[in-house]
Design brief:
Distance between the termini of chain A: 42 Å
Strand order of the largest sheet of chain A: 2-5-4-3-1-6-7-8
Largest interface: A-B, 46 and 46 residues
Structural class of chain A: alpha/beta
CATH superfamily of the largest domain in chain A: HAD superfamily/HAD-like
Largest sheet of chain A: 8 strands, mixed
Shape of chain A: globular
CATH class of the largest domain in chain A: Alpha Beta
Strand content of chain A: 15-25%
Number of helices of chain A: 14
Radius of gyration of chain A: 21 Å
Oligomer: homodimer
Number of domains of chain A: 2
Number of strands of chain A: 8
């Protein structure tokens, strides 16, 4: 007597709802709401990518079918940077760290002569890059640690509310991909649990993913630092420390999926070589699988980059996807809309 | 337009369903199924504990009420050993490790003269205890590491199917607390997400919690070791290494809750001093809260122990619970049934 109704959608005041996605539609589903004839992926042009997605959802959720996947096993994982939102001209979390450091600079006159802060304050990105991992970790430490989890959450929320992307002049959370919102809504309407599995910081993402993607904090997997329990004013508080504990990228992604979710996904979507192991791990499971890549081919509406990019380099994974017949999304050809604000 | 229907219950072939819990009932809920008059907690005797639970669920889920908690915030966390199942005469995971070591002994003749294995094979629990943390970690290493996550899962599943508890002569998974199953079913019927937050090993629990408690792997938080991605026969596999990464006990529990869930619970249940920080952290949030302790007072039907116990010592947390008015469950007085197999 498993109920086959739609799961309650999380109703949040963000992009997902305003984009009108509450009514994803279906094909071979046991329930047929009134809007079943609507296209659940209207921002996707007809083509192999769209067809592979619709076909996968239909096959895995048709009771009695050879490819049926029981609802608890319907785990779908998505990289974030470059897969669910834009990652150029550099990761948005780096923009956050730079903006935070600039805001803190008046309290740190010594930073004028000290790297990586000298480069950050001078807007010298090449200089920042030249400080290497040591410099970047120091930048992360001062902007992401030494505060409680709640304080950090507030600093991210405040930044999201005010910061603007250099190319689009819009909040960073406007630069999410409308077709991917539609795909996630379609999956959730079919009882898939949608997860983020990203190299980005777990606390950084959790501050806004529920509002923007409809993905609650407990379904966000990312890189993380050490957190300690302390007492302040007699109350227990969780404090973010400087030490990085785990980088959720490359071979870390299958490890993190096992760690946080404990099941192998049946669907995985990425856009770079950092997602390759996650895609391979998903593919190595038994039964129906869908592995997808967003290929950034649209310099006009977004950005065009792959094998040579400093951020989101897509090289080996693109070759393997083509060789193995994974779903490769050509942004320019497959998406008639990129961002929610461009919707007609 | 949030749907206020019951959430789909995970239908699993285990105790939860056979115990007839699919129909939890409710009071001040917006939906009133046909069975709304049934007592959702039939194994709980009328008393302060039962009333506090029913009252909390009613208050936090009544739309428009002063204590209403939005569905996404309805996070309920439960310790496992001693809270959801029995933990005497020693933690069941220790019984698993001992049984595994015995089964492996023929391949390790050198263990006869080497601690901690000499004590394990001789059934000398005092000798095992005397090997201290080093001995216990070595026992864990040989029984919990050096294999893939899938292989370990199988070894746990096989053990659960055959091992018997020394006092009851039943599978360990029979020794789960019927009243707690009812409480978790009631919470889920009101859109609470129920999590385990236990000092036990995360992979050990994930092998059976979905079947036994209706708690899926992704809602199981526990202690964990290092896991690495390797390639075997050209396929990516996840291998459990010997190193312990994190102990989810005491001050670790709030850290793990933040790490895995990313929200502060509104309800927490434990039974020992190892749960105190989790209860304090839950209590320190704003809005309605429920903190509960299972007090083992029933030597006849289960075990009676608290301040002096080697396993599940309950001392400081008992004092603090009484002082702060938390819900203290007196097993003997509050539960008319302890285990599902005792149900009339």
């Amino acid at each position: 007597m498993e109920l086959t109704r739609r799961r309650t959608m999380r109703l949040v005041p963000g992009a997902l709802v305003s984009a009108g996605l509450a009514g994803g539609a279906v094909m071979a589903s046991p329930w047929r709401p009134a809007f079943a004839q609507a296209d659940p992926l209207p921002s996707w042009n007809d083509g192999a990518a769209k067809r592979s997605l619709l076909d996968f959802v239909a096959r895995t959720t048709a009771p009695g079918g050879a490819d049926f996947v029981a609802a608890p096993e319907r785990i779908a994982v998505f990289d974030n940077d470059g897969t669910l939102w834009t990652e150029q001209p550099f990761y948005f979390q780096a923009a956050f760290a730079i903006d935070q450091a600039k805001a803190m600079a008046p309290q740190h006159p010594e930073w004028k002569d000290r790297e990586p802060f000298r480069s950050v304050l001078a807007g010298d990105m090449a200089g920042l890059a030249a400080t290497g991992e040591k410099g970047l970790l120091e930048l992360l430490a001062v902007t992401h640690a030494g505060m409680t989890v709640e304080q950090f959450n507030r600093s991210v929320t405040d930044w999201i509310a005010t910061a603007r992307h250099p190319k689009f002049g819009r909040p960073y959370t406007d630069l999410i991909f409308q077709p991917m919102l539609e795909l996630m809504a379609l999956l959730r309407a079919h009882q898939f649990k949608t997860y983020i599995v990203s190299g980005g910081g777990i606390e950084f993402m959790r501050a806004w993913t529920e509002k923007v993607y409809g993905i609650p904090p407990e379904q966000v997997v990312g890189s993380y630092g050490v957190v300690k329990l302390e007492r302040r004013d007699g109350q227990p508080v969780l404090v973010k420390e400087k030490a990085v504990d785990f980088i959720d990228d490359g071979p870390g992604k299958p490890v993190a999926i096992n760690h946080f979710i404990g099941r192998r996904p049946v669907l995985a979507f990425g856009n770079s070589d950092g997602d390759l192991e996650m895609l391979q791990y998903t593919a190595a499971g038994s039964g129906p699988r869908l592995m997808g890549l967003v290929h950034h081919t649209d310099a006009g509406r977004e950005f065009a980059y792959d094998r040579q990019s400093h951020f989101g380099k897509l090289d080996k994974a693109l070759d393997e996807a083509r060789q193995r017949g994974w779903t490769v999304v050509d942004m320019k050809a497959d998406w008639n809309t990129v961002y929610p604000f461009q919707k007609k």
